[in-house]
């Protein structure tokens, strides 16, 4: 994928998660100090992350909305602190156009919008004007209400239909098709069974013709199946990521880029039938 400024991302790519929040479900409070956050971003890039996703608002189930000023105050010092030091692109995890605008002006190249441009009516135009890339994620309701809405007939069909419609709307707002990424929203208005069916049926989403991103890292369904200890979460995440890459996922969003990048390389080599050096 080509981003503005001639930046290229080769798929499958690892996106490293950097939550600059007090309350994110797995790394909340760890990176509130901008210096610590900058160091972690640089470390993730060294470990193999091809994108760093910076967020200032938790979207865990039940999370409350954060004021845009607070979100900006959390993420902007980190994005500015990375200027000239981070070679890979920055993505900003936000639903709010004012936050996305400030992040893009500070150097971000991708907007990761878990509301798929439905939360803030100004978001589509903003992304189009900045020629940024955008992640459109499936969810029902908001993080505060979503788990009550986890009811589906054919969950893969519903997610594909929703994301196709959101991609059409994004293109109608002027966002180039080549800069749109789709994400099934693992854990967002989904029970464990829905997450598993979506991962098993991920190739259907990949066939829509857009790069697909998947966020499974340390999520509750991994915890339920693999266990809550660090190595159980890590290996459970690696297993789910490998299945996603084998099904055609282009980007995996994870908290542990180093070990997960190794799993991604193996899964990609198996998928293509060729060792990485020959690809
Ligand atoms: N998951 C989380 C946050 N943002 N964005 C996309 N596109 N896809 C995801 O699956 C996704 C996401 C939740 O994980 P995390 O960032 O670790 O937690 P929190 O939202 O509590 O900060």
Structure explained in plain terms:
The chain has 10 helices and 8 strands. By secondary structure, it is of the alpha/beta class. It has an 8-stranded parallel sheet with strand order 6-5-4-3-2-1-8-7. Helix 1 (34-47) packs parallel to helix 10 (257-272). The model has no long low-confidence stretch (mean pLDDT 96).
Shape call: globular
SSE order, one letter for each helix or strand: EHEHEHEHEHEHHEHHEH
The residue fraction in helices comes out at 40-55%
Spatial order of the strands in the main sheet? 6-5-4-3-2-1-8-7
How many angstroms does the end-to-end distance come to? 16 Å
What is the number of beta strands?
Answer: 8
Hetero compounds: 6-hydroxymethylpterin-diphosphate
Mean pLDDT score: 96
Task: Please give the radius of gyration in angstroms.
Answer: 17 Å
- Describe the sheet with the most strands: 8 strands, parallel
Strand portion: 5-15%
Poorly predicted parts: none
Task: Itemize the secondary structure elements and their pairings.
Blueprint: E1 13-19, H1 34-47, E2 51-55, H2 68-82, E3 90-93, H3 97-106, E4 110-113, H4 123-129, E5 133-137, H5 155-172, E6 180-183, H6 192-200, H7 202-206, E7 213-214, H8 220-226, H9 230-246, E8 251-254, H10 257-272
Parallel strand pairs: 1-2, 1-8, 2-3, 3-4, 4-5, 5-6, 7-8
């Amino acid at each position: 994928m080509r981003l503005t400024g001639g930046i290229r991302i080769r798929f499958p790519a690892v996106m490293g998660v950097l939550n600059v929040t007090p309350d994110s479900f797995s790394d909340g409070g760890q990176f509130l100090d901008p210096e610590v956050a900058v160091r972690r971003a640089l470390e993730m890039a060294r470990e193999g992350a091809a994108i760093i996703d910076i967020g200032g608002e938790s979207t865990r189930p039940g999370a409350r909305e954060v004021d845009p000023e607070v979100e900006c105050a959390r993420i902007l010092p980190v994005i500015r602190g990375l200027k000239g030091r981070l070679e890979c692109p920055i993505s900003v995890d936000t639903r709010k156009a004012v936050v996305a605008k400030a992040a893009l002006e500070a150097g971000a190249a991708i907007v990761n919008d878990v509301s798929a441009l439905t939360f803030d009516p100004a978001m589509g135009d903003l992304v189009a004007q900045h020629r940024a890339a955008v992640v459109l994620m499936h969810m029902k309701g908001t993080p505060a209400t979503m788990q009550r809405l986890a009811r589906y007939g054919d969950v893969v069909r519903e997610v594909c239909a929703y994301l196709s419609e959101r991609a059409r709307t994004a293109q109608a707002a002027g966002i180039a098709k080549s800069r749109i990424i789709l994400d099934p929203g693992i854990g967002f208005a989904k029970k464990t069974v829905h997450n598993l069916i979506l991962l098993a049926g991920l190739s259907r989403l990949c066939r829509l013709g857009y790069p697909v991103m998947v966020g499974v890292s340390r999520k509750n369904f991994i915890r339920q199946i693999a266990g809550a200890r660090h190595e159980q979460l890590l290996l459970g995440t690696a297993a789910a990521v490998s299945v996603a890459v084998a099904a055609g996922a282009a980007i995996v969003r994870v908290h542990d880029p180093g070990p997960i990048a190794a799993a991604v390389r193996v899964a990609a080599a198996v998928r293509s039938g060729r060792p990485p050096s020959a690809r």
